[in-house]
Amino acid sequence: MHINGEFDGVLTTTAEIVIGKTGFVTGEMKAKRLIVAGEFKGEYKGDSIDILPTGKVFGEIHVKNVIIEPNGIFEGESKIIREEAVLKLETKATDKKK
What we know:
By secondary structure, the chain is mostly beta strands. The chain has one domain (2-80). The protein is 0% helix and 60% strand. Strands 1, 2, 3, 4, 5, 6, 7 and 8 form an 8-stranded parallel beta sheet that branches. The radius of gyration is 19 Å and the shape is globular. The N and C termini lie far apart (64 Å). Residues 85-91 have low confidence and may be disordered.
């Protein structure tokens, strides 16, 4: 999905979102990857975010990977998501004696 222009609202996709140089997005976004060449204000949750030299991000991000290229701007809070350990639960079989 490529955004050139203004958008205000909620976007959810399993694909990649690109905010072009003329794009201005406000709201909440969930995607596999977000590439910002324009401006984003709000909350983003996903695998990764790339802020390009013309990109500006203001708000909160929850991601596994962050790339901010020289001159890219990020102001806000970031939470790096780590792979959560998988817990194996053992169940005990109960003997039913008759």
